[in-house]
Write a structure and sequence with these properties.
6-stranded mixed sheet, 36% helix, 11 strands, 5-stranded mixed sheet, alpha/beta, 278 residues, UDP-N-acetylmuramoyl-L-alanine:D-glutamate ligase, 10 helices, 2 domains, Protein-Tyrosine Phosphatase, Chain A
Length: 278
């Protein structure tokens, strides 16, 4: 659970508390509650003491479904699943630790419904990664484009930056980050944008493009933390971004495109996308 619809909730805490209401219709005696053991926010808003069937998944020791030896491989993530003193090798076609968590949750749910864990692991390998969800594509000049433009929220943006860092090696890391529509414009929203600015610096992004006035705090925070001002750009035009970006489009660069869908449908950003992903 992380902040998303701040626009409709007064505080991040109120939003996360509302998320926890999903269990209100679950029978404490017969219902199965499957939780991410590594998420501290879940522990803050959810009391599971009355539930008889609680299953935990995650990376930490003690989980019913635990991921170990998590690593990036060609086309996705590979990890060792530990469950009831048995181990299974799992491959999920999709990059980033969130895909590992999703895989663990899916295995926990399907096995609770009667499928064998072994079959769950086999079927995960046939998963088809959704379009514009951390989708790796060949870009102009031989560069790599990470297309994550389906939506934009703090957790997904932070995760995308981690994927950029962990898959780029010694290549130049370029992040094009847009505003997050559901955050609104409150002080809490500005705090979330600042968090992303911190993540930009933490993941050692080489060049940062910030799209939208609402998202300027990302760049401001990155600059405050010491990012080179000559490598931070603010723009509302896909055409302008392309002119600056064009010299960097080569086999030695990886570009993360993390702009919300409602911006990507604009003419200049459609042209940008066609230009960098011909």
């Amino acid at each position: 659970i992380d902040v998303y619809h701040l626009k409709d909730c007064k505080t991040p805490e109120a939003y996360m508390k509302a998320k926890a209401e999903i269990i209100n219709g679950l029978d404490p005696k017969t219902g199965v509650l499957i939780l991410n053991a590594d998420d501290s926010n879940i522990k803050k808003v959810l009391d599971v003491s009355g539930f008889q069937r609680v299953i935990y998944f995650g990376f930490s020791d003690g989980c019913h479904f635990q991921a170990k030896n998590v690593r990036y491989v060609d086309g996705g993530m590979q990890f060792t699943l530990k469950h009831q003193d048995q181990t299974y090798e799992v491959f999920v076609p999709g990059y980033g630790k969130p895909n590992v968590y999703n895989a663990l949750a899916a295995i926990a749910a399907a096995s609770s419904a009667g499928m064998s864990v072994e079959e769950c692991c086999e079927r995960l390998a046939s998963f088809e990664q959704m379009k514009e969800h951390l989708q790796f594509r060949h870009g102009a000049g031989g560069c790599t484009i990470i297309d994550d433009t389906w939506n934009a929220a703090p957790l997904s943006m932070a995760s995308a930056l981690e994927v950029l860092q962990e898959t780029s090696g010694s290549k130049t890391k370029i992040a094009i980050l847009g505003y997050m529509p559901q955050l609104g414009e409150s002080e809490f929203a500005r705090q979330q944008y600042a968090r992303i600015g911190e993540k930009v610096v933490e993941t050692q992004v080489d060049y940062l493009f910030v799209v939208g006035d609402e998202a300027k705090e990302i760049g401001r925070k990155a600059l405050e933390l010491g990012m080179d001002p000559s490598k931070v750009y603010f723009s509302n035009s896909g055409t302008e971004i392309y002119q600056i970006l064009k010299p960097f489009l080569n086999q030695d660069s990886v570009v993360l495109l993390k702009i919300p869908h409602r911006v990507m449908v604009q003419d200049s950003f459609q042209k940008l996308k066609r230009a960098i992903m011909p």
